[in-house]
Specification:
Elements lengths: L2 H27 L3 H7 L15 H16 L1
Helix pairs in contact: 1-3
């Protein structure tokens, strides 16, 4: 695996971790955040043009993150 790919993977893991715990913290302080994020999923999509575009996969990942933050 190239250094750039490894660094990108590490960055993605770190960002997901920080986002997940931020979502949990904010939800505890301001209930309703996760409901609002869940309601916004229909606006989320994959910006990739062409055959690699998969809006459903992107929404599925986001939905799993929200479900995980709910505990």
């Amino acid at each position: 695996m190239s250094d750039a790919i490894t660094e990108t993977r590490h960055r993605e893991i770190a960002v997901e971790h920080l986002l997940f715990w931020t979502m949990r913290y904010v939800e505890e302080q301001h209930p309703g955040l996760l409901d609002s994020l869940e309601a916004s999923l229909d606006k989320l999509g994959d910006p990739t043009p062409g055959s690699d575009k998969n809006d459903h996969a992107v929404r599925h990942i986001a939905a799993k993150m929200i479900a995980g933050a709910r505990g």
